Amino acid sequence: MRNRTLQLFKYPLGMLLFITAAILSSGGRTVLPFGLFLFLCFFETVLLYTERRMLLDLRIIFTLSWLGGIALSTLKLSRLQAFWGTRMWVSVFLFYFLVLLADDLLTAGSRSSGQITPGNEIRPSGESRERFRKKLLSCIWIILALGMASFITEAIFFKGEIPILSDKPHAYTAFHITGIHYFIVTMIFVPVLSVLYLFSGPVSRKEVWTLLAASGSVFLVYVLMLSKLQLVFTAVMPAMAALLLQRRFRTRTVFFWFLALILVLVAGVLVLMSMRHYPEGYLEGIFRFKDKDTPAAIQYVYTYIVNNFENLNLLTVNLGHYSLGIRQLFPVFALTGAKFLPQVAALLSVEQYLTIEELTTLTILYDAYGDFGIAGAAGFGILLGLFNGYAAELFRRKRNVTSVLLYVQLAVYMGLAFFSTWFSNPTTWFWLAATVLITLWMCKEGDGFRASVLRTLQVFRLPVRSRKESEGSE
Are 244 and 281 in contact (CB under 8 A)? Predict the structure, then answer.
């Protein structure tokens, strides 16, 4: 009965609030729809937390990112912004609620059979701690070695012109060798794997310092590259893993640590921006705030979030022909090298609609809409909700290295849903492939490759609830 009441509030009432705020915003209002969307964000977050009693629920992170970004967008503080059209509102509305609905459908009844609770046991019960740690440590060193070798190769190729030493504002985008760069950005796994090692049992002071040195070297590389996104992953993924696995943390403690992490990340991003050698007044000229006296830091954070929605709105207004899957299939063409073929390159030359050339980030929904319009937004919402539900349920039922890695990656994607297309980005799929390879390595028992593959498949298999569990949830 309680769950049905929550669903009633979460969907019909939540949809009503969303539609009301959208109508007010379309009519030229700013402050009132902003307040309504903020209330809706808080309202949905409370309901979602009540259902699973977990502050780091993927649905909550997604809600804060998506509804929070829409709320800020309704303020229209920049001349780059416009009042959204009907197609835009319908797309973001369907996408949000279908993500929640698909997640609910996949995990239906699971909340009654046991909520997701913190717990720090990630080692398989039949494996010794020493063997488990040896395999985990070897993963760390392999990833670190490949990443560092790739970074040195790029530094040599570009004759030592590392972005932090360059006087060019966009040197970080040029510091890139196709194929090799994937191994550099995959070093984001080193800090989170180090945290998992620390949670595998008692560790010596030497082990702690060794892991800190490994993680610190990754952090240093990303600072040298002035790579904001990799630094976010490097900081958020291990922090999220620690919060998920720490038994003693209460919800209030998690909230304050999570808030502190966000503040540190914002401050770090602003510092990195100041190191990119932009000419004086360059950023303010790009942001085009109506109030020129707004502090540059606020202009940057605001534009960093809302302009992505404006790019999506431009797409919904101007797109003449859908690309029918070409945008979202880009990782296939990129990772196979097919994108270098002339025929494929011509096929991939779809138009990007941007408010301004320098601001190229797009939101997680951009390519799905570009491929199939509103139907693409709805379909992608369903698929994303199912994937989130799968990851959450896998983590609840199988507390291991793989489920933690998958969960924390998705947490970052949901937290930055306003920022990137993510799943039509080749790097995302390279990271997911790396997660599979790490799982395969951790499943290695010395009895042959085929046996390791079968164990790997078993790790990713979502357990079917027993009849006893099903009866208990009714």
Answer: no
Determine the 3-state secondary structure of 52 from DSSP. Answer: helix
At 111 the pLDDT is 46
pLDDT value of position 115: 42
- The low-confidence residues of the chain, meaning pLDDT below 50, are 1, 111-119, 466-474
H-only helix segments in 280-400? 282-287, 296-318, 330-336, 342-347, 366-397
Provide the domain limits for residue 28: 1-118+249-474
Q: How many domains does the chain have?
A: 1
- Position 261 in a domain: yes
- The reported pLDDT for the residue numbered 388 is 96
Both tokens of 183, joined, read: 């191994």
Residue 63 lies in a domain: yes
User: What is the helix (H) or strand (E) element at residue 83, kind and residue range?
Assistant: none
Phi, psi (deg, nearest 5) at residue 349? -80, 60
Q: Within 10 Å of residue 306's Cβ, how many Cβ atoms?
A: 23
Contact call for residues 190 and 214 (beta carbons, < 8 A): yes
Domain-located, residue 267: yes
* Integer angstrom CA distances of residue 470 from 108, 114, 397, 438: 10, 11, 15, 33
Structural domain contains residue 402: yes
The predicted pLDDT at position 55 comes to 85
Q: Are 175 and 154 in contact (CB under 8 A)?
A: yes
